[in-house]
Automatic annotation (TrEMBL):
Source taxonomy: Bacteria, Pseudomonadati, Pseudomonadota, Betaproteobacteria, Nitrosomonadales
Name under which the protein is recorded: Pyrimidine 5'-nucleotidase
InterPro entries per record: HAD-like_sf, HAD-SF_hydro_IA, HAD_2, HAD_sf, Pyr-5-nucltdase
Annotated signal peptide: none
Superkingdom, taxonomy of origin: Bacteria
One Pfam assignment: HAD_2
Amino acid sequence: MTRRVWIFDLDNTLHNASAHVFPHINRSMTEYLQQHLQLDEQAANALRMHYWQRYGATLSGLMRHHGTNPDHFLWHTHQFPDLERMVLREPRLRHVLKALPGRKVVFSNAPRHYAHAVLRLLRIEGQFDDVMAVEQTRYRPKPDSFGFMRLLRRHRLKAAQCVMVEDSTENLQAAKKLGMHTVWVTTETRKPPYVDVKVRNVMELPRAMSRLD
């Protein structure tokens, strides 16, 4: 494949967000729903989960059913007074990314301010040609094809040039439908047909490159 372009998800792909970051975001979103929809904690948490499962993002459900301002929601739910301690950095990640031939883009459902803050803490911000956050998809997060198509147009790419590196099977399935190559970051043993290559973490990518050709 010529002129390969790597498209990386951020959370649970380039770093482990499950340990500290995701629990914090989940609590912040539940608190937001409590405050702005006048719900108790149990009802707010259930609604957060329901919208996430139904639409792929809590924000999508809030915009659709409650007219929530997306910037207001994203700002208030992505405040991290102690983000430096919460982001788990792999010291060799920068070296691994530099070893991958081709352009690199981050494509995340997270807001722009958070994505850039995490990349700075991981010390890899300079490795990417672009960071496409949820604002650039007009708040239509993956797996919605709108964001994928916007990224392709923005960088004048064909899907066949791209390798989508993700932890989410739904997002990989959407990428594969468009004609992208797919890498699933997971410890699971199964390998769905829309996954080309499976790695336990992104540190294995240089060794896995030959399997993408």
